[in-house]
Specification:
This protein has about 240 residues and is α/β, with parallel strands linked by helices. The chain has eight helices and five strands, in the order H-H-H-H-H-E-H-E-E-H-E-H-E. It has a five-stranded parallel sheet, sandwiched between helices. Strand 4, helix 8 and strand 5 form a beta-alpha-beta unit. The protein starts with 15 loop residues before the first helix and ends in a 12-residue tail after the last strand.
């Protein structure tokens, strides 16, 4: 997203919320800016906005929808602008970009994203900083509107997966026995659980050296692997 794709809102003709949405988007918070503009667009008739004000909102909303991969909604808004009269240079630029570049989107229009978070060492109360990071990551994504499944194993003999009711997020536990606690067994169980959830993205968090094994063979989802510094630091000999 660049400043050239968004109309300047400094002239004082549009609602202050539009200027705020543009500033949020240019600062990197595309979803927040997009949601603010969408609310203005939905209320445009009740708010008795002028044609110029509606055009400014529609263009900026279309630009953000296109940047976020929502090409159908962007095209619908740009179609409205084409039928409403002469377009601004910024609007023509956005329309040209949309027509020339097909932005891939595998996400549902009713949900921003389905995200599976995989953790091998999850317990609650927390037994380490990585668990706090996993919980806060889950909360952050849910607050943004994403549907999140936190998937973790349960192996009492190793003290893994002991989650009390005080845990601030819901989890998907996978019970294991010592007999099936092998790399092939772990891969199979996690693959089945992830496939049932059918996520757009997978985030592999606190898993020590099992990260590549859990990511192996996942071709239908985007995979993000987190690493922690302590995994690579050894003490003096």
């Amino acid at each position: 997203m660049t400043a050239g794709q968004l109309d300047s809102m400094t002239g004082g003709r549009e609602p202050e919320a539009v200027a705020l949405a543009v500033r949020e988007a240019l600062a990197g918070d595309l979803w927040r800016g997009r949601d603010r503009l969408a609310a203005l667009w939905s209320a445009r008739t009740a708010d008795a906005l002028s044609a110029d004000q509606q055009a400014a909102i529609a263009h900026n909303l279309a630009a953000l929808d296109a940047a976020l991969g929502q090409t159908a909604r962007a095209a619908e808004l740009l179609g409205f602008l084409q039928q409403s009269g002469p377009m601004t240079a910024a609007t023509r630029h956005t329309l040209q970009q949309l027509q020339s570049v097909q932005i891939p989107s595998h996400r549902s229009s009713t949900c921003r994203a389905r995200i599976a978070i995989v953790s091998m060492l999850f317990n609650w109360p927390s037994t380490g900083g990585g668990i706090i990071h996993t919980v806060e990551l889950t909360q952050f994504l849910q607050a943004a509107g994403d549907e999140v499944a936190l998937i973790h194993p349960v192996l009492p003999e190793w003290g893994i997966g002991q989650v009390e009711e005080t845990c601030p997020v819901s989890t998907t536990p996978l019970p294991f026995s010592l007999q099936d606690w092998t790399i092939p067994g772990i891969q199979q169980r996690f693959r089945q659980a992830v496939d049932r959830f059918a996520p757009d993205d997978i985030i592999v968090t606190d898993c020590w050296n099992l990260n590549p094994y859990l990511a192996h063979g996942r071709s239908t989802s985007q995979i993000h692997i987190t690493y922690y510094t302590r995994k690579f630091i050894t003490g003096p000999k």
